[in-house]
Design a protein that fits this description.
By secondary structure, the protein is mainly beta. It has helices at about 40-45, 60-65, 120-125, 145-150, 220-225, 285-290, and strands spanning about 1-5, 5, 15-20, 25-30, 35-40, 50-55, 70, 75, 80, 85-90, 95, 125-130, 135, 140-145, 150-155, 160-165, 180, 185, 190-195, 200-205, 215, 230-235, 240-255, 255-265, 280-285, 295, 300-305. The protein is built from 6 helices and 27 strands. The relative contact order is 0.19.
């Protein structure tokens, strides 16, 4: 199955039209970094979907802060129903409390072209609630690992075509020799790929289509003693937001591709999600994929950036 996708203005997330119980379509984010396929709480309420308690101590924080629940729903793209082992319901809006600050989830490769709240691209995803609170509402849902693990996927950022196949019979791609085996980070759902930074490494980084830009852990940044940009940014994740700085990487080699002068947001992975503290090195996001085709073969555990 091939479908056209768009990029969410301001945050550069891949979004695709998804039907929920035959209604829609609604814009969902394709997020290879997300553990579960998730529907926003607002859409769950709008559609009157039944929910159940999410069981597990590791989810307690999300249950309290993001209203995490399990939900029964059938999701489809086009005429095809998606295979999903589990679907969550969760609040997917983020409060804007730092008035006048630079609110970003992405930055361009030279570290200067930063998305600001004042720009139209960001304004389009900011909503004002009845109480007057300004929030970012980036998506109606997320297609995550609990669905994607059943597929071969190709995300072609050049053509804006997403291909999802249940087996390799219908999966077409060129340069098959560039596919390389990947390992899941610390036995999580996160796809790890080796990255060389300024000639050192390799360091396993996470492939994340839900990341608007590349991030680097505080620990690796300190180890590499990378120079800092003078830009202060606000990074946003499931667990909250934090102000941080950007590191400048002279050279980064990923999957036979060489990138120069890469900006990476220095981030505390604990804001990203339930098991994100297991991300030791960093996350590869939009500024790595923007002119490429990202392939992840979950069935045979191989991947490539071509």
């Amino acid at each position: 199955m091939k479908i056209k996708f768009g990029l969410k203005p301001g945050i550069n997330h891949v979004f695709i039209p998804v039907y929920v119980n035959g209604k829609g379509p609604y814009n969902f984010t394709l997020d290879t970094g997300a553990q579960k396929t998730t529907i926003s709480s607002a859409l769950v309420d709008e559609l009157g979907l039944e929910t159940q308690e999410a069981i597990g101590e590791k989810y307690e924080h999300l249950k309290e802060k993001r209203n995490l629940k399990r939900v029964e729903a059938s999701l489809g793209v086009g005429a095809e129903e998606l295979i999903s082992d589990e679907v969550w319901a969760m609040d997917l809006v983020f409060s804007i409390k730092a008035k006048g600050k630079k609110i970003i989830q992405s930055s361009e490769s030279n570290g200067k072209e930063v998305k600001r709240v004042a720009q139209p691209a960001i304004r389009r995803i900011i909503k004002t609630t009845k109480s007057g609170e300004r929030v970012i509402e980036p998506t109606k849902g997320v297609i995550g690992y609990s669905t994607l693990k059943n597929y071969f996927i190709s995300v072609n950022y050049r053509t804006r075509i997403l291909q999802l196949e249940k087996n390799n019979t219908g999966f077409t791609y060129n340069n098959q020799e560039q596919l390389q085996e990947f390992e899941y980070i610390c036995n999580t759902h996160l796809v790890g790929i080796p990255v060389t930074i300024n000639g050192d490494g390799p360091f396993p980084f996470v492939l994340d289509t839900g990341a608007g830009g590349t991030t680097i852990s505080k620990k690796l940044h300190e180890k590499m003693d990378l120079p800092l940009s003078d830009i202060v940014v606000k990074a946003i994740g499931v667990h909250g937001a934090q102000e941080t700085r950007m590191a400048i990487i002279d050279q980064m080699i990923v999957s036979s591709n060489t990138y120069e002068n890469v900006s990476a947001v220095i981030i505390d992975e604990s804001i990203i999600g339930p098991r994100a503290n297991e991300i030791e090195n960093g996350i590869l996001g939009y500024n790595i994929f923007r002119d490429k085709e990202l392939i992840i073969d979950y069935i045979n555990q191989t991947c490539a950036i071509i």
